[in-house]
Specification:
The structure is a single chain. This protein has 100 residues and is mostly beta strands. The chain has one domain. The protein has one helix and seven strands; from the N terminus they run E-E-H-E-E-E-E-E. A hairpin with a 5-residue loop joins strand 6 and strand 7. The radius of gyration is 14 Å and the shape is globular.
């Protein structure tokens, strides 16, 4: 049976990312695989207690769902950016910022 794994937060605390992720590098690569076909760039912001946006199915293989808070603008309304919040076992969310 898979055991939960922890990744290190910037302040040295451990964050449980669930039984299917063996560490931060594996999680990063899974996010990269699921995001890079849709967005120009993305970055991990950190951990938050509450997500923003709408709940939707997740393309990342480690998450069943995610919350997406997207904003669009620009001269033609075709520039979009936003934040995706992935649920973690401890009740917090991994926040990822992106731009399309």
């Amino acid at each position: 049976m898979n055991q939960p794994h922890d990744i290190d937060e910037a302040d040295g605390q451990k964050v449980n990312v669930g039984p299917f992720v063996s560490g931060f590098e594996e999680l990063f690569n899974a996010l990269k695989e699921s995001l890079e076909h849709d967005v120009s760039w993305w970055r991990i912001i950190g951990f938050v207690d509450e997500p923003k946006g709408d709940c939707q199915p997740s393309d990342c293989k480690y998450f069943e769902y995610e919350f997406c808070d997207q904003r669009c603008g620009g001269p033609d309304g075709d520039m979009c950016d936003g934040d995706i919040y992935f649920p973690l076992p401890d009740g917090r969310f991994l926040m990822v910022n992106y731009c399309i």
